[in-house]
Amino acid sequence: MNLQLQRFYEDYRAYEMNKDLVENFHKRACQEKYRVVKALMACKLKDGDSVCTHVQRFQQHVECLVRINVNFDEEMDIDIVLNSLPSYYDQFILAYHLSNKNTTLAQLHNLLQIAEAVMKGKGTASTPASSPFISIGQGKGIKDMLGAKRKLDAGTWEFESKL
């Protein structure tokens, strides 16, 4: 507490001081919560932007909300991130949901980076109509550390549980 507040509250009892502080700072906390939630919901991945930067920006907003005691569970965080992706990630989102895996936000971040690299390698990141086909099931490919299996030649995605 700064010196000015200490002097102001020196004749208050602890309960009265707490009540007064809560009343004074509640409005400010509500305004901050509104500002951060609005920014979080407006956070959409734009063409040409990096998935890495997008997820990091999202994580910064979530950390601001945690500081003011607004908590989302990790599943909600992941749903909000997936909802913020453009339409050319629809096949990735479908494969993610069909895989029915419990992943963390960090693991989703890594999977999105892999998907972005594959789409950029195929030249499809900016054209929704030519998004790569994504499938769930068995196939030959390169296994990543997180269990994402990719076929570089066909541009397909498959998820296997390694978690």
How would you summarize the topology of this molecule?
Elements: H1 3-8, H2 14-42, H3 51-67, H4 74-83, H5 90-99, H6 105-122, E1 142-143, E2 148-151, E3 156-159
Helix pairs in contact: 2-3
Walk me through this protein's architecture.
By secondary structure, this protein is mainly alpha-helical. The chain has one domain (43-159). The protein is 55% helix and 6% strand. The chain contains 6 helices and 3 strands; from the N terminus they run ααααααβββ. The protein has helices at residues 3-8, 14-42, 51-67, 74-83, 90-99, 105-122; strands at 142-143, 148-151, 156-159. Strands 1-2-3 form a 3-stranded antiparallel beta sheet. A hairpin with a 4-residue loop joins β2 (148-151) and β3 (156-159). The radius of gyration is 22 Å and the shape is elongated. The N and C termini lie far apart (46 Å).
Keywords:
single chain, 163 residues, mainly alpha, elongated
Largest beta-sheet details:
3 strands, antiparallel
Please indicate the percent range of residues in DSSP E strands (runs of 2 or more): 5-15%
Strand order of the largest sheet: 1-2-3
* Structural domains: how many: 1
Mean pLDDT over the residues: 76
* Terminal CA distance: 46 Å
Low-pLDDT runs = 124-148, 150-155
Helical fraction equals 55-70%
The gross shape turns out to be elongated
Radius of gyration, CA atoms, in whole angstroms: 22 Å
H/E series: HHHHHHEEE
Main structural class: mainly alpha
Task: Count helical runs.
Answer: 6
Please provide the count of β strands.
3
